[in-house]
Amino acid sequence: MIGFLKGRLASKHPPWLMVDVNGVGYELEAPMSTFYGLPAAGEPVALFTHLVVREDAHILFGFGTDGERRLFRGLLKVSGVGPKIALGILSGASVEDFLRIIEAEDVAMLTRIPGIGRKTAERVIIEMRDSVQKLTLPARDAQAPAAALSSQSEAYSALLALGYKPPEAARLLKSADEPGLSTTELIRRALKTAAKA
Hints:
Blueprint (H helix, E strand, L loop, with lengths): L3 E10 L2 E6 L2 E6 L2 H4 L8 E10 L4 E6 L2 H11 L6 H10 L2 H10 L2 H5 L6 H11 L3 H4 L10 H16 L4 H11 L6 H14 L1
Antiparallel strand pairs: 1-2, 1-4, 2-3, 4-5
Helix pairs in contact: 2-3, 4-9, 8-9, 8-10, 9-10
């Protein structure tokens, strides 16, 4: 299983992109949420990946954050949702927006995404309701060092333990995030932001 690619962005033509990793070109399909954050062609890029194996093809999907990939994988477990619909959802809503849609059980919002009918939207909400908290984490930079990723993750878990809802915890951490902050400092800043609200 290919979990991560780091190389140079060879080309990008939504929804397809190609990453050159030491002379090997990996062709990936990615949601628009990932495309918005891509650098110019020829620049360094790092992406989380998910491989879908079908009878007629092996398709590699790329994501700018681990949260996007986790949500994609969660959506694939919903009956009737395949990679195309999952990509459509991620292209039409950020991870944070999707969390809000599920919490509000907003079927109308989901049906605005191309390819999502009312029945599919209802099924996504029902089947994802209990799993979104563990499937999604705050948006992260795929190129950040592992220490920064674990600081974000630990701070997020701490805020959940303190009783904050996942979207609120993600919002607080986003407003408090600066490169290189320790877990303790992230939590302190997030709580300071919460106190001001």
